[in-house]
Amino acid sequence: MNVEFRKALESITPNLLKSYLESQSWIKNGNISNQANIWHRDGDESYTHEVIQPIDSKIRSYGQRLIEAIKSVAEFENRDISAVIDDMTNFSSDLVKVRVTHPDVEGGTIPLEDGVLLIERSRDLLIASTLSTFKRQKVFNGSRSQDVQDFLGKLKLGQTEIGSFVVNLISPIEVGSETQQDGCDTSLARSVSMNLARSLTAISEAVDKYANSKSIFDFEETVNKGVSANLCDAIIGLSGRAKSRRFFYKN
Asked: Which residues contact 161 (CB under 8 A, 6 or more apart)?
């Protein structure tokens, strides 16, 4: 067992595993001597699939029992155990994926300078979305509020992926008291992700409208949906130095 694998397992607490199982429609319907919970699939009366979840991380065999539980989940989901562990460790975070496509990234690599630019502009994409989550305006200059700085300081860069080239940005989900533009009670991480999705949709729709109207006011209207000059600059940068790559966003 390598160091990273061991660290990932150590971060999966009984409550985290329980929350993950509940989110994936597993049903708890028994326990074993107050040492483990028994989970089955909702509607699976024959109990074809079963997960034995250890509930005391202090017992000596917790690590082995945890691996067995995750293997059961991976078998049901028909996925590699490392992929399931990755999902579990990021379960309390919002994951934003930025994927770029072009013939020169099909093998899962990217020219170095463009790779650096991609990560920088992916960061800028989230910064712009965070700023407009708190306040809508055309362009953001100058200093940032402490709430924004605190949130940006918690962002993490996950492992890149093949497909064609994917950057993963991770932000912790915490329900706080920040004053956001939409006044909602959801976590700031989730609000930023939703704001980014709205902004990108608004830009796409504005481009389609502009193709017919040739009116710059089609873009002016997107400011109220979280679009800013900062966001547009980040999007342009995602296409690379030659502006030749397409990008896709998923959260």
From this structure: 97, 108, 168
1 — pLDDT class (breaks 50, 70, 90): low
pLDDT in tens, 176-191: 444 455 544 457 888 8
0.90 exceeded by pTM:
no
Q: Rounded distance, CA 204 to CA 114, Å? A: 24
CA distances from 235 to 84, 89, 100 (A): 31, 29, 11
Q: What's the CA gap between 182 and 176, in Å, rounded?
A: 14
Q: Distance (Å, rounded) from C-alpha 26 to C-alpha 42?
A: 6
**Cβ atoms of 47 and 40 closer than 8 Å:** yes
Q: Is the peptide bond before 19 cis (omega within 30 degrees of 0)?
A: no
- Alpha carbon of residue 46 to chain centroid: 35
